[in-house]
Amino acid sequence: MQTIVVTGGAGYIGSHTIIELLNQTDFNVLSIDNFSNSTPNAYGRIKAITNRSFETLAFDLCDAEALEKNLSAVKNIVGFIHFAAFKSVPQSVVDPMLYYDNNLNSLVNLLRFAQKNKIDNFIFSSSCSVYGNSKELPVTEQTPLKKAESAYGHTKQVGEEMIAFFCKAYPDFKAVLLRYFNPVGAHMSGKIGEYPLHKPSNLVPIITQTAVNRNSLTVFGSNYNTRDGYCIRDYIHVSDIANAHIKALYYIINNKNKNKVSLFNLGTGNGVSVLEAIHSFEKVSGKKLNYIEGPRRDGDVIAVYADNTLAKTELNWSPQFSLDDMMLSAWKWQQNLEEGN
Asked: How far is residue 137 CA from its own chain's centroid?
């Protein structure tokens, strides 16, 4: 049986993608995670949702010897879906070298292993942060990249370039770069969702934890040049992101790709302000949030949202979940956590 290796498979997007792999495909799935920002409990949740088993390995991809030792024994690997990376924009501003060390060295090691073992299909978890403060909205895949506003965003820019040069050097190697906008929400069952081990920096887990703990929520910056003064993002349901990976995987395995490096935006195409996201949560949850205005946060882009036409056309993908769905599923997940489920 052919094997797909998912790195960072116990993480937020990785775990939801494994669910879709198990539900939609016949591939053997192998997850790698060092649990730096996740827990092995995610695996049990995946199995409970899918009623299917899969393989797991625990090691750090930055350790080239451990990667070689562990993966050399795995048979019939046909592709990688590479999620494993640090992802906090504020943390990357404070400690940039941590991000360059982790995010780029792990990618180098994985590409070297792929080349050595002739594993020719690679899907890379990129980000809308590569666009920086673009003057063009919505951004398309052809939109020129601006200077990254954070070390995290820069590692994604560099990672994309590394993969492009790698594809040029090795004729059989094919890659899909998926630029996520702002993945939010949880599996609609409410049985798995975003579970940061450290203080969350992403909006939605901050919102749901605020609703539970009745603390105040700080919104960073309310004087931007946007329609209501707040940052604008393209929020997209995590299961829509996961589903796009399945389509991207078949796209390159079945040689439907038109280029050795394929690039797709994954967003809804709708820009939503932070305040609008808060109001959506309040509507679906019935909880009034106590939010206060704070200063602008270093590394934050003012506004970015996607033109997703290319993904719709080439991958036959389109988002299925609304903003209210995203907030309701995240709230259901938070309630399950509070109940110990």
From this structure: 21
Write the pLDDT tens digit of every residue in 115-125: 999 999 999 99
Predicted pLDDT at 300: 87
Cα radius of gyration (the chain):
19
| Residues assigned a catalytic role | 152
Give me 339's structure tokens.
């109940």
The yes-or-no verdict on residue 201 having pLDDT over 80 is no
The stretch 162-181 carries a mean pLDDT of 97
Asked if pLDDT for residue 213 goes beyond 90, the answer is no
Structure tokens at 295: 């200063």
Amino acid present at 167: C
Please name the residue that has the structure tokens 């590692």. 155
Confidence at residue 99, expressed as pLDDT on a 0 to 100 scale: 98
What torsion, rounded to 10 degrees, do the Cα atoms 281, 282, 286, 290 define?
120
CA-based nearest residue to 174, from 185, 163, 182, 184: 163
Give the span between the Cα atoms of 237 and 324, in whole angstroms.
10
Residue identified by tokens 């996961």 is 242
Distance of CA 218 to the CA centre of its chain: 24
Q: How far apart are CA 261 and CA 141, in angstroms?
A: 12
334 within 8 A of 294, measured Cβ to Cβ? no
Three-class SS string for 182-250?
A: EEECCCCCCCCCCCCCCCCCCHHHHHHHHHHHCCEEEEECCCCCCCCCCCEECEEEHHHHHHHHHHHHH
Q: Where are the beta strands (DSSP E) in the chain?
A: 3-7, 28-32, 55-57, 77-82, 121-127, 174-180, 182-184, 216-220, 232-233, 235-237, 261-266, 272-273, 290-294
pLDDT recorded at residue 149 = 92
Tell me whether residue 287 is exposed, middle or buried, using C-beta atoms within 10 angstroms of its C-beta: 0 to 12, 13 to 18, 19 or more.
middle
* Residue 206 structure tokens: 């901050």
Range in 74-78, 168-172, 291-295, 325-329 the model is least confident about: 291-295
**Would you state the structure tokens that stand for residue 298, as one six-digit string?**
């270093």
